[in-house]
Amino acid sequence: MAEAESPEKTTVNIRMTETFLNDVDGTWKEEGYNSRSEFIRDVLRDAIKHPDFNRADLKAMLASEVDIQEGNTRTSDDVKAEHGLAGNSDDE
User: Hey, which of 30, 48, 67, 87 would disulfide with 72, CB 3.0 to 4.6 Å?
Assistant: First the structure.
């Protein structure tokens, strides 16, 4: 079986503060990446594939996750009533 060739890689240098680098290093290790480079490639790939996903979207998702974990949830009937949609369901 022939071994697949890997695309040629180019080294890219970036500058960042030591504090930020420490955050990056802590994150890739916590997330289970094999290396800092693997983590950075993955983050950049996500940024390219999902350019419309922004920090506000991430904050909203994280806030929702915290609400769910803390049990701060509402039923669909509660949400419908809050928005004046009670009784307008297609199921009725």
Answer: 67
Nearest Cα residue to 36 out of 53, 47, 48, 22: 22
Q: In whole angstroms, give the CA distance from residue 50 to residue 57.
A: 12
Summarize pLDDT for 15-32 with one digit per residue, the tens.
999 999 999 999 999 999
The domain locations on the chain are 32-82
| 35 membership: H or E segment, kind and range | none
- Contact yes or no for 64/56 (Cβ under 8 A): no
Contact between 39 and 28 (Cβ < 8 Å)? yes
pTM summary value: 0.53
